[in-house]
Amino acid sequence: MALMVPGMHLPPLCAPAYVNGQILPSVSLSSLSNEGLNWTCLVFYAHDFDPVNGGSVISECYRRHQAFSILGCSIVLCSTDSCYAHLAWMKALKALGTIASATIPMLGDTSHMVARACGMLDTCKGVARTGLVLVDPALSVHKVIVSKEGFHAGLDAALRHLTASTGH
């Protein structure tokens, strides 16, 4: 599928997930939005054990997690790694002191279904591109950002859009 554009609707998506220290065999994207939080920022990256993509993207999402929560938005991470890779990566980040606990859900998109549906799959490499898809409570896409470099700017843009859209 081509890259999603604002106005499109996110299809119902299910995938295995690493959530709060547990591996769940299949969860819907809509069920991962924390209670009371209606928007979802689906963040894509290639691999956990890639210090450039996985390390910086995940760390930046954890750093900004509270800012998104205040605006009523859940962050959900997604790579084409398995949930077992997510588990190992989060243990490594905790051991390094990079994060205190694994509170952001991580989809294990080994089937490539989620990345493909969102137009974020690099089909030549078989991995997710680095970027994000911001959706409202009705699963309508508001912002799509694909970033080769400077992923932090994409999170800034998503936060600005949320601030304007939610009136916070």
TrEMBL record:
Pfam families noted in UniProt: AhpC-TSA (PF00578)
Q: Which residues form the Alkyl hydroperoxide reductase subunit C/ Thiol specific antioxidant domain?
A: 25-141
Catalysed reaction per UniProt? a hydroperoxide + [thioredoxin]-dithiol = an alcohol + [thioredoxin]-disulfide + H2O
> Could you name the domain of life of the organism this protein comes from?
Eukaryota
Q: Which SUPFAM superfamilies match?
A: Thioredoxin-like
Can the keyword Oxidoreductase be found in this entry's annotation? yes
Query: Sorted alphabetically, which InterPro entries does this protein's record hold?
Result: AhpC/TSA (IPR000866), Peroxiredoxin (IPR050217), Thioredoxin-like_sf (IPR036249)
Q: Name one GO molecular function term.
A: thioredoxin peroxidase activity
> Which example biological process does GO assign this protein?
response to oxidative stress
Name one cellular component (GO) term.
cytosol
- EC number(s) from the headed UniProt entry: 1.11.1.24
What keywords would UniProt list here? Antioxidant, Oxidoreductase, Peroxidase, Redox-active center
Broad enzyme group:
oxidoreductase
Does the keyword field hold Oxidoreductase? Answer: yes
**Family the UniProt entry places it in:** Belongs to the peroxiredoxin family. AhpC/Prx1 subfamily.
What is the name listed in the Swiss-Prot or TrEMBL entry for this protein? thioredoxin-dependent peroxiredoxin
Q: What is the lineage of its organism?
A: Eukaryota, Metazoa, Ecdysozoa, Arthropoda, Crustacea
Gene coding for it: LOC108666308
